[in-house]
Amino acid sequence: MAETTVEPLPDPPATTGFRGRVEEFLRSNCPPVGERIDAGHERVDAARAFQSALASAGLAGLTYPTRFGGAGLTRAHQEEFDEVSRGWSLPTFPLAISHGMCLPMLNQFGTDDQKARFMPANISGRAIWCQMFSEPGAGSDVASLATRAVRDGDEWVVNGQKVWTSGAHYCDYGIIVARTDPTLPKHQGLSMFIVDMHDPCIEVRPLRQISGDSGFNEVFFTDLRIPADWLLGELEQGWSLATAMLMFERVSIGAGGGSFAVDRSPALITLAQETGQAHDPRLRQRLADLWIREQIRRYIGSRIRAAVAADRVPGPEGSIAKLHGAILARTARDVSMSIAGTAAQAWDACDVAGARWATACLGASGASIAGGTDEVQRNIIGERVLGLPREPDPYKGAAWDTVPRS
Ligand SMILES: Cc1cc2nc3c(=O)[nH]c(=O)nc-3n(C[C@H](O)[C@H](O)[C@H](O)COP(=O)(O)OP(=O)(O)OC[C@H]3O[C@@H](n4cnc5c(N)ncnc54)[C@H](O)[C@@H]3O)c2cc1C
User: Which fold does the domain 130-236 belong to in CATH?
Assistant: First the structure.
């Protein structure tokens, strides 16, 4: 078996007085776990207001440098913040991609000018960012994407279409991967750019999901002009940056600490007690199984955040985290459906609790697709952790514009 790149979990040093500051802030600024947070656009406003208060309290962007708008603290502070915040419903879900993926990319690959210009507003929630990789013909095989960026003087001109872009309808900036040289093999001709989502050359069309929400969008670019210095990283290094960003995404979805990973077991244990089912031995076992998986997520997350705080891009452990997170989401869905019964599937229009369970259950399958499907994660783990043979690719090394596309 090949050796994994997974590092041992170091003990974080203690932080003095920090926990009290976080507890005091959360007590005054958000409801405890279990209370409902309003959906829709109000949710975005609530996220912006919360994040702005967090920044004013010196608690936003904990591990990022102060000169770029962060708090300049340590991973131990982040761990402590995550630990304390588990008891509270932080209204930060609309910022999950902005902070979980775009911010670490800016920090790791941005020029000093880009960091000074973009990071402070990102950290304080004044500017929310989205991530635009997937296209109608390029999801799992995202390296085959067709959106083109052509250099014209001091600008790049972008044409093409993205799809499934979470939050594009309320975002201020985005990170896009586009093809800058179609004559190179598919992984080599890609570059990454920052784009202004308010530009009139970008059209955002929301998509309606099974849960009733419109969390993601189609995004169309027609002769969009991007300043040349909004290139992120080096020209034609888009694939290695995209891989890094996907790892941040997988960590964010799967490893906890972020807004994607809320522990469901406390609310489900309460629900089992309230509905008189807490004595059912089979249900108790399933709740225990869920709780154990949540603890495993915490340890995977802690190990990966240590790597990120040490400025390392997470390796295949991001895929392990993502796959575990998706399995966990389905486990929570199945347990909650067996407790809530029909209320987890259909509910009266004025039944807020029913709507909450139903939306969580219907949304659970998306965790197995977003950030790379379960099958894709298993392929990565098979190849990069277990050392199994790579998937065959008949077009390996061929110029992108000579490869047939559907
Ligand atoms: C909730 C949610 C949010 C999202 N947000 C964003 C976003 O913000 N930005 C963005 O760019 N994208 C986003 N996506 C898109 C997501 O990244 C893609 O949906 C995903 O990568 C899969 O691509 P696809 O939908 O084109 O499916 P396809 O790639 O067409 O896959 C179809 C099926 O084939 C399987 N498959 C494909 N290739 C292989 C293989 N080599 N081996 C085995 N099985 C394979 C897949 O597992 C899947 O079951 C989001 C998706 C969801 C569900």
Answer: Butyryl-CoA Dehydrogenase, subunit A; domain 2 (2.40.110)
